[in-house]
Write a structure and sequence with these properties.
The structure holds 2 protein chains of 2 kinds. Chain A is mainly beta. Chain A contains no helices and 11 strands. In chain B, the strands form 3 sheets. In chain B, strands 2, 5, 6, 10, 11 and 12 form a 6-stranded mixed beta sheet that branches. A 4-stranded antiparallel beta sheet of chain B has the order 3-9-8-7, with no helix packed on it. A two-stranded antiparallel ribbon of chain B has the order 1-4. Classes of the chains: A mainly beta, B mainly beta. At the A-B interface, strand 4, strand 5, strand 9 and strand 10 of A face strand 5, strand 6, strand 10 and strand 11 of B.
Chain lengths: 114, 117
């Protein structure tokens, strides 16, 4: 069984479009995250939700809007896509109450903006 | 501010030999966690090993061990008996105290490991 899943795996779109990426985890975790990996492979946190509440919101353009309908789902909507948004977006989840609090990652969504 | 430094952009190792991937960190927190992740060419991020700042013993998971030297702020990953399937990018990461807004992972720039037959 897939622990953290993301759809779609690949997303190719034109500049200016709006797109969404969906994430689901079946680990029973209470916290979910979005990370962005740029073309140089550098990974950076974007958002984190704990029990559907936003707890981390890094300096991300407000064209990016996360939504967590429940603890098991975290979606990322991106408006007015720009060339610089091309990257791999990873969803992750963890259990905040566990001391190790290991984050488990989804397979990633490779977004290409043309 | 927290920072992770991986000074080896790339490494080669012969199959069946051991290899050490370096990681140093900087933080003012007393409580923190250190992680290593593997990213093969297929792109997924695979959790390998965790070390807590208060753990007195070095973490081990199968062929992976973490050489934790707190005073030197280093958390090197040791892979024993390298296999061809170990060829991948390896990331060291740190998080602050496991509560709320400090829970984000700060990543290093990664080390690309190539295992040669």
């Amino acid at each position: 069984d897939t622990a953290v899943s993301q759809t779609p795996k690949y997303l190719v779109t034109q500049m200016g479009n709006d797109k969404s990426i969906k994430c689901e985890q079946n680990l029973g975790h209470d916290t979910m995250y979005w990370y962005k990996q740029d073309s140089k492979k550098f990974l950076k946190i974007m958002f984190s939700y704990n029990n559907k509440e936003l707890i981390i919101n890094e300096t991300v353009p407000n064209r990016f809007s996360p939504k967590s309908p429940d603890k098991a789902h975290l979606n990322l909507h991106i408006n007015s896509l720009e060339l610089g948004d091309s990257a791999v977006y990873f969803c992750a989840s963890s259990q905040l109450t566990v001391s190790t609090d290991t984050q488990y990652f989804g397979p990633g969504t490779r977004l290409t903006v043309l | 501010a927290q920072k992770i430094t991986q000074t080896q952009p790339g490494m080669f190792v012969q199959e069946k030999e051991a290899v050490t991937l370096d990681c140093t960190y900087d933080t003012s927190d007393q409580s923190y966690g250190l992680f290593w992740y593997k990213q093969p060419s297929s792109g997924e991020m695979i959790f390998l090993i965790y070390q807590g700042s208060y753990d007195e013993q070095n973490a081990t998971e199968g062929r992976y061990s973490l050489n934790f030297q707190k005073a030197r702020k280093s958390a090197n990953l040791v892979i024993s008996a390298s296999q061809l399937g170990d060829s991948a990018m390896y990331f060291c990461a740190m998080r602050g105290p496991a509560a709320g807004a400090t829970n984000k992972l700060i990543f290093g720039t990664g080390t690309l490991l190539a295992v040669q037959p």
